[in-house]
Amino acid sequence: MKTLTLALALTAITLPALAQAREVTFTAELKSYRGDGAYAAFYLTDAKGQYQETLWVAGQKSRYYKHLRDWARGSGMSSSEYDGLTGASISSGHTLQFTADIADELIDAGYEVRVDTAVEDMRENRADVVMPLTTEGAGKPVAGRGYVQSLGYTF
To answer: CA 50, 54, 55, 57: dihedral to nearest 10 degrees?
Structure first.
């Protein structure tokens, strides 16, 4: 009986913790363009458009992050905002896929996923993509305005 009580108590403690975040897989397809690989910052903003959290940064040379202007301003380009959340830049016509844990309370709560992009010696795109983070939006890619052909996510 004590074992069953302990098991139930542990389950009651761990299940809410597991249910508090959802694994979200993002897929970004880039348009074909002439030029170097794109730097891109994927991040969350609240209902007022204020920066909340970095999801992923494509491009490993931090000296170029200032060109991802809205993300750079919101994150303060503090390495603590992107440590462990970076990878190679994305080449023209290629696809990037990454997974992030996002708190359940942020989904369907007015939060948006935003992407800023930049390519060396080419245009910088603030809010290349802006898409609501909703249950209904899962599996429905959104077109970008700059280098991003489309961005989608699945749970």
So the answer is: 120
Structure confidence by residue, pLDDT tens digits, 125-145: 999 999 999 999 999 999 999
Q: How many CA atoms lie within 13 A of 64 on its CB side?
A: 22
The rounded mean pLDDT for the chain is 91
What size, in residues, is the chain? 155
Write out the H or E segment, with its range, that includes residue 18: helix 2-19
What three-state secondary structure class fits 66? Answer: helix
CA atoms within 13 A of residue 139's CA, in its CB half-sphere = 3
The model's pTM: 0.87
Helix (H) or strand (E) holding 126: strand 124-132
Q: Report how far residue 119's alpha carbon sits from residue 73's, in angstroms, rounded to the nearest whole number.
A: 18
Distance between CA 102 and CA 15 in Å, rounded? 16
